[in-house]
Amino acid sequence: MELRLKTIGYSKEKRYKLRNKEDVLQKELQELDSKICNGDYFDQDILEKFETAKEELKRLHEIRGKEAMFRSKMKWIEQGEKPTKYFYNLEKTNYEKKLVRKVKQENKEIISNPAQVNKEIEIFYRKMYTAKINDNMDNYAYEQKFNEFIENFEHSST
User: Fold this and answer.
1) Other C-beta atoms lying within 10 Å of the C-beta of residue 92
2) CA–CA dist 9, 24 (Å, integer)
3) Where are the domains of the chain?
4) What DSSP letter does each residue of 66-113 carry, written as one string?
5) Phi and psi dihedrals of 21, rounded to 5?
6) What is the pLDDT of the chain when averaged over all its residues?
7) Beta-bridge partner residues of 145
8) Is the pLDDT of residue 111 over 70?
9) CB count, 10 Å around CB of 111?
10) How far apart are the C-alpha atoms of 100 and 17, rounded to whole Å?
11) CB 60 within 8 A of CB 21
12) Secondary structure letter of residue 157 according to DSSP
């Protein structure tokens, strides 16, 4: 769980930086474009900055498209194919398939509130993975069963 939290945090930070970089590039392109269009003189340096910023923005858009293709889990993406609305919709559909929207409780009541659904799922798995103790056995009997269970295990420290 800790690894998942760290990777999610890393991804969010990476996405935030990418979005900020894209915003900065778009503002820079607008400023350079206005300088080029409204300038009384021709400056090659401004034109080169404009082209560099345009190429960088194009690269960022390609990265976002590749990320969408990867998240959509398409197997047949052809080399050089541009990301389209299809991939973004496929990614959205795949995400929605993972969500549990409704749960039937033990009392046959169906709930659809996402917070309650998550709580019911947690309760279900907590019950499932909790050890059940037989009241007819004492601690010595449990210890004997455990010892029988582990006696044939071999541990290799390599």
Assistant:
1) 13
2) 23
3) 2-76+89-98, 103-150
4) HHHHHHHT-S-PPTTPPP-HHHHHHHHHHHHHH----EE-TTS-EE--
5) -65, -40
6) 77
7) none
8) yes
9) 15
10) 31
11) yes
12) -
User: Cβ neighbours of residue 147 under 8 Å, at least 6 residues apart?
Assistant: none
Q: Are 27 and 19 in contact (CB under 8 A)?
A: no
Q: Inter-axis angle of helices 44-72 and 2-38, to 10 degrees? A: 150
Cα distance between residue 110 and residue 117, in whole Å? 9
Residue pair 68/62 in contact (Cβ under 8 Å)? The answer is no
Count of CB atoms situated within 10 Å of the CB of 32: 19
Beta pairing partners, 110: 104
Q: Taking the CB of residue 26, how many other CB atoms lie within 10 A of it?
A: 13
Token pair 């959205």 is at which residue?
Answer: 92
Residue 158 pLDDT level (bands cut at 50, 70, 90): very low
Phi, psi of 30 (to 5 degrees): -65, -45
Select the more confidently predicted residue: 71 or 79. Answer: 71
Which residues does residue 103 pair with via DSSP β-bridges, in sequence order? 111
Contact predicate 110/101, CB 8 Å: no
Summarize pLDDT for 42-73 with one digit per residue, the tens: 678 888 888 898 899 888 888 887 777 666 65
